[in-house]
Amino acid sequence: MGLLVVGSLGLDTVYTPFDKVEDALGGSATYISLAASYFSGPIQMVGVIGTDFPKQYIDILANHNIDTEGLQTIQGGKTFRWGGKYHYDLNVRDTLFTELNVFKNFDPIIPDKFKKSKYVCLGNIDPTLQLKVLDQLTDPQLIVCDTMNYWIEGKKDDLLQLLEQVHVLVINDSEARLLADEPNLIKASKIITDMGPQSLIIKKGEHGAMLFTSGTIFSAPAYPMEMIFDPTGAGDSFAGGFTGYLFKTRDLSPNNLKCAVIYGSTLASFCVEKFSTKGLEDLSYLKIQDRYREFLNLSRIDDTE
Amino acid sequence: MGLLVVGSLGLDTVYTPFDKVEDALGGSATYISLAASYFSGPIQMVGVIGTDFPKQYIDILANHNIDTEGLQTIQGGKTFRWGGKYHYDLNVRDTLFTELNVFKNFDPIIPDKFKKSKYVCLGNIDPTLQLKVLDQLTDPQLIVCDTMNYWIEGKKDDLLQLLEQVHVLVINDSEARLLADEPNLIKASKIITDMGPQSLIIKKGEHGAMLFTSGTIFSAPAYPMEMIFDPTGAGDSFAGGFTGYLFKTRDLSPNNLKCAVIYGSTLASFCVEKFSTKGLEDLSYLKIQDRYREFLNLSRIDDTE
Fold it and tell me: Whole-model pTM?
């Protein structure tokens, strides 16, 4: 069985102070799948596109050992589109437009051959759909899930129902504060893990990430980047690298979860170095391991006492 | 020889959402000295107070093996006073008042017996005064220095002259951005170390601290605190713990600097748990080492590959 990834596929228009792209390959399932593809295959992707989705984008996915059999193509439909603009410090972004298009009526049907998937990564989509996915699976052993402010505010009940089934929730610091209704992240982490997830990862952008699991806290550093080119997809790449590494190693021990957090951070750091998915297209496991070691060295200390 | 600490002593009035204090023991030299006192003695303090400085505060210092012979008491003068108010998230503070009083004409005269000090920590005071201190020392081997936005903006020339002599500059992220005139902290670190300091520590509050030394970067986690009671003095406690540990170990290798950063973070975490200097008054080296180990565990990962 492969790693099941469900989420959005889209055509992104992105403006940063450095450059812009139109109708670039995007979407949460895309970033997750590309990031995860460097660890072990196959990646089994479920999502929806229109007939305007470029053939060359399908080729990029296929070239990364991503099985697109679960992609629904709506005849005559238009693919989901998102437009955003980043400001100088790249922490602030304005959404310019969101066209749901074929995503509006998306019904995530899991092909029979994917239903026995043991490792699942649910990209950031409506929790109602995320629940529908889980309902079709026979024996998931690791469910990693992302969400966002929009669903925390608008679909809280469905989200809470979902969280009871989720093993690892991956969200950023503002989402954690909103979900827990608590500004202190340490207190928030306890409130959120009480909602169901055995493990919680809080991503803090340029300040790294924190893993809360089995009553312990792991603090992962951020990669010291002199230049962030395009932050789009960083969170999805994190989730993809994290889940991909766990899928490859089949080891859910606390220490291996820590390693997976560093691999997630590694993939996110590659993602933001180039526009759109470019940073994830030409990697190798060797390159990933080199940066993983750089990450470890950032917080390494030889304790002689 | 002892560890020479020069800075302010003051009477602080602090309001937080939890409590308030008036005329509490404060000042950069106070926090630095108390934090450093747990590592090795004696601490040799140079500063100025008025005759209104309570005898019991002198006793607190003396009880921590702090030599107050370098304290100038201005007869009939009033001690430096500062008042501040913290808001709910404790990251924002308003200065309510600053009364320089005896600090206005402070001339830091280093007693002869302190002039051969090898280890020096310059608390956050006017860089003109910090320069005056260094002029009186015969052979300093480690000069750790703090500063703030006020001096970066108002006394840039003196500060730049000072930085040429400083071994370790300890500032926070907003100060680093201002000093380097560069928003990216990695780029800023290079600009600042080009100004003179061999090592730079950038404190990031709830996001930990970064050490830049010998071309490498070390990322230290923050202690996961559910409750910060009073942030006053956290930066000074960091500098005191950092310098105190180096003074005790007499080892300026990159790895020992990393350990010192964790000890600095440790002392800062104790500081903010109680009001004013209370968090630094009843520690022990054992308590400090226990928390130091907790810090190490936060970023520890067993790398099996």
Answer: 0.94
